[in-house]
């Protein structure tokens, strides 16, 4: 669905503090799956996510969204595509304080100019589906963390996007709420949406819902075949053997 | 088109909500803006009302007034002078006028006495201006006494108080019969203060004036149009000076607006970042911000203009009183006839809202081009 | 302010490269938002300034010997009328630029960016010249100058452009008026229907002709009918309250229609561009429809005014 070829992204290009956050990424995101980006802090996960979500443009390389090249599109058109295709859930939730939950959910649709009644109904339906119907008129700063995240999810879904993008969705949640988030993820999958997220959280990365994990380091993919290079295979075998001896047997996950 | 309107409605809605959320910040700006409009509008309304009054007064005055000059000073018209003018082509009517000033020690004010030959009050009766009536506390039917310059006491019955629609000019007026006027001032018989000529065709006024100046070299014809023009330029000049002074204020205000607009709070910046990330386009943010500016400036404009209107026409420009008080003791509490004209509003709009719009434009644009991915990195 | 923008526009022309994802390109793209907003503001200000000039001139008429309305004031020195013409020109130029901008913004590769910013820089001297004319005009106002007013300016024996126009006999003027307006309506309708390049250019030319014919018509006979006075040819007194602000009814559709017609034409050189064909064609035909309706509305209003008048110019 989204296809990246040789993506580079530089910050402060041409200046002394030039920094290449991404250096040659080739990646294919499949539709209808949950894909997780993981890697150490500063490895470029968020940067890659903004490129996938049409929030920014690559310095070099191609981004194809459903076979359309979007890497050269000006912001005006990129925004249009983004609005129709992607919904975003941010780490800090980024709700607008002082507005009610309902207003916050309706915000992404304002530039579309739908009839007010219709938009309101849609927003109320989204909130109700996330068990927030009773809180719709509350100002967002009065909501609990979990409720805020659900408002943020409802907001991401208001324009019925095909892809939902979440940056560190569980970083601000405790285990119970993180699990609740995972159930919501399943629901999104059932609805046929594609989900892209970044996470450090093993609860997320190792969850069965996540179909693909993309690992990053220093702006490059930690390539899958690297795992089968002899040295690494030897290392892996060694650790597996030692684990085998100490621990009860565990099934080897087919991932990576 | 419908879509466009719906979009603008959403943007305006959001703007209203966000203005309401930041009341204190916007209130200050609103207040300064309204104040500026208020002062500018007061000056404009006031001068234009004065100009209007003057035009009205002059509209009913004769086209040409002829004064006799002796040693460069205005002197009485001697007997036989009117006859010497004779008939001039284009002049419909020639008549002598009687008027003079009277100082009233009771209220320490000057009145203008006008002796009428036509439509005059009966002997022993007068009509008085509004200001005078108020100061002396008289109504129609009362008796009013003046001690003349020769020391004799004259009593007149007040026939009527003149209507107040043009109080600025008629406030200190006393109308009385010709004979009463001559008796009161011991005015020499058959002399006049000046001569009025009415000329029907405006094109001929100058020719008539030329002929008068030729026939009576010791006279000075005064043309109504000249007076009108002089008045206008005096008023315009005054207004111009005041406005020039205030242009500094406009500039200061523009700087303030620029500063306010560019000094976005962290909260506002965050909001714009969020809006852009969730799918608002730079143009949408600019339009939203322009709505904000429009709402603020229109509110301020309306508030300031209405306040100025009330100030000038209901409180008689009370704040300008210290500046204008020198005119006459009777000055306070005259009410001006309300005049509003489109030009004035358009000018005021041009000089207040436009500088504001221009001043906030660049800051607005700067705020709206934040990276859409900025919120991801917060 | 536009002058301050010039270097930025120049930079934009030099460094524009839509294919690049560099930060410079991003900055340039964002700058285009500023320019289009700026031009829109200049455009709005120009409308207001045009009104103000006419109003103000009218208002100051009393200060000039011989001036009875705006014409007299504008004639008080040599700069008045050039200033007015300049302002009208800026109005139409800004409208044309905004049309181009609107269409260009619908094509993802912004094919007209260079054209637009070259035009914007070309527009600067015009705006500056108009500003200079304004300055000259107001600084050179002398209240004691005897000026000529509509009576003499638009009377038959003086030799100005305006007098040529107003001195026209009523009958040919009426023929010219309806003929050219009909032509403009037809040309715009043709373009709305055929959507060809030549019809677009044709529509723009016809719109300009329609504008000129309309002005001649206003000077030579419509104003006479409105004032009910066989020698009062003034185009400005129409705007006064004495005549019920009828001028606005005339000028609003006329200016809007002319701007739209010109806009339809200005797009034509660019319809061949692959990414512009769709939006440019659609916009041009929409503008043509708009222009057609504007001219028709103008002609109708003018006709109603003439029919309502008690003045009889054309002896039966
Ligand atoms: N606007 C910017 N200007 C300069 N450098 C930036 C900018 N944004 C990101 N970077 C740098 O790019 C690198 C990648 O950043 P990114 O946010 O993608 O990392 P991440 O993998 O999401 O890290 P974390 O797990 O901590 O969120 C970092 O070294 C960061 O400092
Ligand atoms: Mg990150």
UniProtKB/TrEMBL annotation, chain B:
Task: Give UniProt keywords alphabetically.
Answer: Cell membrane, Membrane, Transmembrane, Transmembrane helix
Annotated localization: Cell membrane
Keyword Cell membrane applies: yes
Q: Which Pfam families match?
A: FtsX
The membrane-topology field of this record reads: Multi-pass membrane protein
The record's annotation in InterPro entries points to: ABC3_permease_C (IPR003838), Lipoprotein-release_system (IPR051447)
Task: Please report the stretch or stretches of sequence annotated as the ABC3 transporter permease C-terminal domain.
Answer: 243-368
Q: Which family does it belong to?
A: Belongs to the ABC-4 integral membrane protein family. LolC/E subfamily.
Q: What is this protein called?
A: ABC transporter permease
Tell me the organism: Candidatus Proximibacter danicus
């Amino acid at each position: 669905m989204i296809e990246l070829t040789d993506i580079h992204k530089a910050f402060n290009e041409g200046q002394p503090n030039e920094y290449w956050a991404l250096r040659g990424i080739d990646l294919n995101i499949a539709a209808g799956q949950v894909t997780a980006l993981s890697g150490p802090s500063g490895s470029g996960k968020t940067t890659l996510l903004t490129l996938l979500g049409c929030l920014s443009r690559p310095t070099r390389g191609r981004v194809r969204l459903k076979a359309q090249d979007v890497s050269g599109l000006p912001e005006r058109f990129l925004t249009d595509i983004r609005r129709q295709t992607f919904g975003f859930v941010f780490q800090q939730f980024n709700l607008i304080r002082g507005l009610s939950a309902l207003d916050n959910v309706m915000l992404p649709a304002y530039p579309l100019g739908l009839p007010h009644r219709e938009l309101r109904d849609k927003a109320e339906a989204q909130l109700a589906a996330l068990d927030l119907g009773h809180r719709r008129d509350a100002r967002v700063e009065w909501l609990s963390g979990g409720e805020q995240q659900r408002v943020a999810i409802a907001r991401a879904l208001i324009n019925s996007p095909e892809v939902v993008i979440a940056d560190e969705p569980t970083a601000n949640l405790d285990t119970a709420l993180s699990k609740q988030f995972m159930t919501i993820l399943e629901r999104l999958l059932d609805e046929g949406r594609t989900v892209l997220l970044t996470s450090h959280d093993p609860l997320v990365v190792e969850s069965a819902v996540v179909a693909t994990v993309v690992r990053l380091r220093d702006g490059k993919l930690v390539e899958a075949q690297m795992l089968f290079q002899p040295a690494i295979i030897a290392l892996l075998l060694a650790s597996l053997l030692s684990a085998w001896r100490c621990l009860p047997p565990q099934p080897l996950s087919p991932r990576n | 088109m419908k879509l466009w309107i719906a979009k603008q409605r959403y943007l305006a809605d959001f703007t209203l909500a966000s203005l309401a959320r930041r009341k204190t910040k916007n209130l200050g700006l609103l207040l300064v803006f309204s104040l500026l409009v208020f002062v500018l509008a007061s000056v404009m309304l006031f001068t234009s009302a004065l100009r209007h009054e003057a035009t009205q007064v002059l509209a009913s005055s004769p086209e040409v007034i002829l004064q006799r000059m002796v040693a460069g000073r205005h002197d009485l018209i001697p007997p036989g002078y009117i006859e010497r003018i004779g008939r001039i082509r284009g002049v419909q009517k020639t008549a002598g006028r009687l008027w003079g000033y009277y100082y009233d020690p009771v209220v320490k004010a000057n009145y203008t006495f006008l002796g009428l030959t036509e439509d005059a009050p009966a002997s022993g009766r007068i009509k008085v201006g509004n200001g005078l009536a108020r100061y002396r506390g008289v109504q129609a039917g009362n008796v009013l006494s003046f001690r003349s310059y020769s020391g004799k006491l004259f009593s007149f019955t007040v026939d009527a108080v003149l209507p107040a629609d043009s109080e600025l000019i008629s406030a200190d007026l006393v109308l009385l019969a010709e004979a009463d006027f001559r008796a009161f001032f011991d005015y020499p018989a058959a002399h006049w203060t000046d001569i009025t000529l009415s000329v029907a065709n405006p094109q001929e006024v100058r020719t008539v004036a030329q002929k008068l100046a030729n026939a009576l070299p010791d006279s000075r014809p005064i043309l109504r149009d000249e007076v009108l023009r002089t008045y206008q330029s005096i008023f315009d000049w005054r207004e111009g000076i005041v406005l020039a002074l205030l242009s500094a204020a406009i500039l200061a205000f523009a700087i303030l607006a620029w500063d306010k607009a560019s000094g976005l709070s962290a909260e506002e910046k965050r909001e714009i970042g969020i809006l852009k990330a969730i799918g608002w386009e730079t143009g949408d943010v600019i339009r939203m911000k322009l709505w904000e500016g429009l709402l603020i400036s229109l509110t301020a404009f309306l508030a300031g203009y209405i306040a100025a209107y009330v100030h000038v026409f209901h409180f008689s420009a009370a704040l300008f009183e210290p500046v204008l008080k020198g005119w006459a003791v009777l000055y306070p509490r005259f009410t001006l006839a309300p005049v509003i004209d489109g030009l004035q509003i358009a000018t005021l709009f041009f000089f207040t809202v436009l500088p504001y719009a221009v001043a906030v434009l660049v800051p607005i644009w700067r705020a709206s081009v934040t990276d859409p991915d900025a919120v991801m990195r917060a | 302010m536009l002058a301050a923008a010039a270097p930025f526009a120049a930079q934009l022309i030099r460094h524009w490269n839509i294919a690049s994802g560099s930060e410079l390109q991003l900055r340039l793209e964002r700058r285009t938002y500023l320019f289009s907003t700026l031009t829109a503001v200049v455009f709005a200000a120009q409308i207001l300034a045009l009104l103000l000039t006419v109003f103000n001139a009218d208002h100051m008429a009393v200060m000039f010997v011989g001036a009875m309305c705006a014409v007299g004031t504008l004639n008080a020195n040599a700069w008045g009328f050039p200033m007015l013409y300049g302002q009208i020109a800026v109005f139409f130029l800004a409208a044309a630029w905004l049309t181009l901008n609107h269409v260009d913004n619908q094509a993802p590769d912004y094919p007209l960016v260079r054209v637009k910013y070259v035009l914007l820089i070309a527009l600067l001297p015009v705006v500056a010249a108009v500003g200079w004319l304004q300055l000259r005009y107001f600084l050179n106002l002398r209240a004691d100058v005897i000026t000529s007013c509509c009576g003499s300016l638009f009377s038959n024996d003086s030799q100005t452009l305006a007098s040529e126009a107003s001195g026209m006999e009523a009958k040919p003027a009426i023929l010219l008026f309806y003929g050219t307006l009909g032509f403009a309506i037809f040309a715009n309708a043709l373009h709305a229907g055929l959507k060809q390049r030549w019809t677009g250019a044709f529509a723009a030319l016809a719109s300009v002709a329609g504008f000129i014919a309309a002005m001649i018509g206003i000077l030579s006979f419509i104003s006479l009918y409105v004032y009910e006075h066989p020698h009062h040819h003034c185009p400005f007194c129409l705007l006064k309250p004495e005549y019920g602000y009828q001028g606005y009814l005339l000028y609003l559709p006329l200016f809007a229609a002319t701007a739209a017609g010109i806009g339809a034409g200005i797009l034509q050189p660019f319809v061949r561009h692959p990414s512009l064909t769709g939006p440019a064609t659609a916009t041009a035909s929409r503008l043509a429809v708009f222009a057609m309706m504007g001219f028709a509305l103008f002609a109708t209003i003018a006709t109603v005014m003439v029919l309502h008048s008690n003045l009889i110019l054309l002896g039966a």
